[in-house]
Amino acid sequence: ATLRLDLDGEPLELHRPALPRLIVLGAGEHAAALCRLGAAAGFAVTVCDDWALLVTRERFPDAAELVVAAPHEYLENLDSPDARTAVCVLTHDERLDVPALRTALRMPVGFVGAMGARATVARRAMLLRSAGVTDAELSRLHSPLGLDLGGATPEETALSVIAEIVASRNSASARPLRDGHGSVRRRDASSDSCAVRSA
After folding, report:
1. Are strands 21-25 and 85-89 parallel, antiparallel or unpaired?
2. Which residues contact 179 (CB under 8 A, 6 or more apart)?
3. Residue 47: which H helix or E strand, with range?
4. CATH number of 19-180
5. Which of 63, 135, 163, 198 holds its CA 20 to 30 A away from the CA of 90?
């Protein structure tokens, strides 16, 4: 986005990088919590579900985009997915999540995750392989989704998911900072900041 400013009579352009994208497939309670925390963490959140009764502005006031569609069909038509795009599958229905994951794992996105218990994860991996997903593609999948924070509520679960996405994006260990050495700032924050130049 570009914004023109006038500082001391001299026009400037303020260039703000586009927000990283978080695509949440499924519109249950965990999705609502993930949308809230994702938006607060600086993501442009899209929520997609094939059930229109769930995909409402009242339930997802912080979403940048609400989509009523089959998740895999939405992904197939996604505009400009890139390494700053994270896809999280929270549909809890293998008829939806298997085709969505098969599509997502073949896209140039930076993160693909799926919620589920370990038994669900194992069965889903079997179904994905049966659907033609290779072991190399399957190795990209973060599932069960989230870091082990010991939480139980949708909000605590969402926090663990956002933490895993950020750690993955930065190739970070996700260990406590007190167990590390050196600077706590691992990267140049200017990569996500605004750049100002004279017009």
Report:
1. parallel
2. none
3. strand 44-49
4. 3.40.50.720
5. 135
Partnered with residue 197 across adjacent β-strands are 13
Provide the β-strand partners of residue 7: 10
Beta bridge partners of 114: 89
Q: If pLDDT is split at 50, 70 and 90, which confidence band does 183 have?
A: confident
Give the strand pairing for 10-15 and 65-68. unpaired
Q: What is the pLDDT of residue 143?
A: 96
Neighbours of 169 (CB within 10 A): 15
Q: What is the pLDDT of residues 10-28, one digit of tens each?
A: 655 555 678 999 999 999 9
Residue pair 84/104 in contact by the 8 Å Cβ criterion: no
User: How do the domains of the chain map onto residue ranges?
Assistant: 19-180
Euclidean distance between CA atoms 20 and 37, whole angstroms: 14
Q: What is the mean pLDDT of residues 126-151?
A: 96
When the pLDDT of each residue in the chain is averaged and rounded to a whole number, the result is 88
Give the closest residue to 108 by CA, choosing from 131, 128, 74, 85. 85
Residue 46 and residue 19 in contact, taking contact as beta carbons nearer than 8 Å? no
Edge-to-edge strands, sheet with 21-25:
65-68, 44-49, 21-25, 85-89, 111-114, 141-142
Q: Is residue 8's pLDDT more than 80?
A: no
Whole-angstrom distance, CA of residue 94 vs CA of residue 71: 12
